[in-house]
Amino acid sequence: MAQFTLYNKHSAPPSSDSTRVDCEHVPLCSINDVQLRFLVPDDLTEVRQLCQEWFPIDYPLSWYEDITSSTRFFALAAVYNLAIIGLIVAEIKPYRNVNKEVIANMSDSDELYTRLSGFPMQDKGILPDSMGRSADVGYILSLGVHRSHRRNGIGSLLLDALMNHLTTAERHSVKAIFLHTLTTNQPAIFFYEKRRFTLHSFLPYYYNIRGKGKDGFTYVNYINGGHPPWTLLDHIKHYASKVRHTSSLCAWVAGRVQQVVRWFYHKLLTRFNFIE
Question: For a Cys-Cys bond, which of 39, 141, 166, 237 suits 89, CB 3.0-4.6 Å?
Fold first, then answer.
């Protein structure tokens, strides 16, 4: 795993150049030169500008205000020479709250924000009902890297930090991490599938981009003992395994009983001198 330094913006390591460097002109030499820190309110303008460049979705201002100030978000930035070159934003929620958000009489920006904070109906089947009663889920709202620094491991560095955060003993209740992505975003799909995320569901017209409906996918990675609901085939395999195990056990018991009967019969005959 790549090594990195996690620090607070207001106690950032000293730099030989006190001027903020434009990401367009920052050559990334080594992953070891990147630091990770949580977003702070001072990052709002910079993060908003970056997201407008990276993503086709027009996030509302309230979203930027929340991810740079609210502790309910895991909002981490990858920084090189004092410039943000990547970020990941995630939220931990109780699985029982899936699909409880109601969208009605909202503006486009409010509807988008609700979607970012909630889940479509197709996501209800991420966990089994029995597990979902007490489980939490991690939801990746956003993961992006500046185009000048892609294919350098920055996305993996950010995702690893989130995975490490959610697989600690304190976060054992988090049984799955999931996200939504455009069906046409092949680089993102390849990236997540390489990181063991699996396709969960198809979301027709989930995104509203510049007035046009775009299809999406839900991808899931199970952690801390989490697993998807069983299908009919899973149940068949389970009971078939039980039958095989039971059959083997019955055969073993029958063999042991037969040995005991033979031993008892031999002792009985010996006692009454039927055999010498």
Answer: 141
Q: Angle at Cα 247 formed by Cα 243 and Cα 253, nearest 5°?
A: 140
The pair of structure tokens assigned to 263 is 């031993």
Task: Indicate the number of domains in the chain.
Answer: 1
Sign of CA dihedral 257, 258, 263, 264: positive
In a domain, 235, yes or no: no
Q: Which of 80, 113, 139, 206 is catalytic?
A: 139
- Residue 180 appears among annotated catalytic residues: yes
Query: Which residue range is the domain that position 44 belongs to?
Result: 31-229
User: Does some domain include residue 48?
Assistant: yes
Lowest mean pLDDT among 120-124, 157-161, 211-215: 120-124
* Averaged pLDDT, 56-70: 93
Give catalytic status of residue 139 as yes or no: yes
CATH of the domain at 190: 3.40.630.30
User: What pTM does this model have?
Assistant: 0.71
Residue 139 lies in a domain: yes
Choose the most confident range, by mean pLDDT, from 92-101, 176-185, 202-211: 176-185
Residues 77-94: tens digit of each pLDDT: 999 989 999 999 999 999
Six-digit token string for 204 = 């027709």
Distances (CA, A) of 94 to 23, 138, 156, 229: 37, 9, 26, 17
For 198, the token pair is 């699996």
Query: Which candidate in 146, 149, 180, 200 is catalytic?
Result: 180
The total of other beta-carbon atoms located within 10 Å of residue 122's CB is 18
At residue 153, does pLDDT exceed 60? yes
